[in-house]
Specification:
The protein is of the alpha/beta class and about 260 residues long. The protein contains nine helices and seven strands; from the N terminus they run E-H-E-H-E-H-E-H-E-H-H-E-H-H-H-E. A seven-stranded parallel β-sheet has the order 3-2-1-4-5-6-7, with helices on both faces. Helix 1 links the parallel strand 1 and strand 2. Helix 1 packs across helix 9. The N and C termini lie far apart (about 40 Å). Bound molecules: NADP nicotinamide-adenine-dinucleotide phosphate (NAP).
Amino acid sequence: MVERDKTQTKADHRRIVIVTGGNRGIGAAISCRFATNGDIIAINYNSGKVAAEALVEEIKAGGAEAFAIQANISKSEDAKRLINEVVERYGRVDILVNNAGISKSTMLMLYNEADWDALIDINLKGVFHLCKNVSRQMFDQKSGVIINISSLSGVTGLAGEAPYSATKGGLIAFTRSLAKELAPFGIRVNCVAPGAIDTAMLAEIPESEQEKLKKIIPLGRFGLPDEVAGVVEFLASPAASYITGETIVVSGGLP
Ligand code: NAP
């Protein structure tokens, strides 16, 4: 009999899931997917308290368990508190989804240093803080799944998004390395790289640019947050027990 990963499944008992930026956009769809599976979701947010609390109520009304936790993931003490609070409540963390992120779309010559620092602090350093803290816990458990939300721009590059793409490409390299480091301890680490997904982040791009973008997407439309969440759900499941260090692109065929 082949031994598969020891991440908790519905058959054992409910998995404990942390979704950063889990209150809206792609993160909210991911939170809802896990809730539908009967998992317990820690919905992290930074400033979107109202959206986080509304989503918790919606999930609870559907019969699952969720709670909201404020933490600015770019701050090491906040990231540590987030992981510790979940461990204190439930004794473990089965799945961490590093979804929280920011973007800024403009030509490099118009970028200022503060924009660069903010992108690095949230998109990369935030993931570092969380992975560092959760990997200690998952190491003790000898099980766990980490899924990082990168971007197609981190794989292929995108004009007007060089610093953002640098953070998302960095996340892919970080994932590959961490996957190799943690594999001996039963911990899998993977990336999902969405293309253009219909959220507030995409709405920041001018409408004329959005239309141009839509025309070059082979499937002819923007993706839905739930279409990213489905891939995250798969990577967290026992069906993906032999996948680690990978990046799955979810882009409607956009190269
Ligand atoms: P979104 O709608 O703008 O949501 C961003 C989320 O990140 C919010 O929940 C926000 O929380 C959270 N967040 C931002 N800064 C944070 C911080 N310092 N600490 C904790 N949480 C923070 O974005 P989205 O489109 O759903 O994007 C989610 C992820 O997918 C991001 O990593 C993004 O780069 C990636 N992605 C998106 C697209 C796309 O087309 N939408 C494409 C490729 C990749 P608050 O509400 O509290 O601010």
